[in-house]
Structure of Cupin 2 conserved barrel domain protein:
Amino acid sequence: MEYSVIDPDDLESVEDRPCDLRRVSDAAGLENVAINRFRAEPGEQLPLAYHYHERQEEAFVVLSGTLHVETPEGELEVPEGDVFTAQPESAHRAYNPADATETVEVVAVGAPPVSDDAVPYEPDA
């Protein structure tokens, strides 16, 4: 059996991302789920683009602040302690608005842990 205790702050931040991203599942050696810790300052978004996944389900647990999520149906506000979920083919863009007064910290869980199924979403297309 293998176990891990991981402090995301001890992990390297992923470069070229719109906010601070730490890949927890990679550090734990997990292969069947993606677990990431995001920390977004005001004006930063979590994903690289407005997108959806073809196969992956996602859940965003808000640890602090209020996460804003743009969807085709409108904008959602997800307060600290709540969870936002997106099923496959559900377009979303999670962010911390520029006029926010605090940092947003989120743990995101996705399964299956695929990196090749994110599809950019064009709202005007």
In short: The longest strand covers residues 57-64. The first helix runs from residue 24 to 28. The CA atoms of residues 17 and 49 lie 10 Å apart.
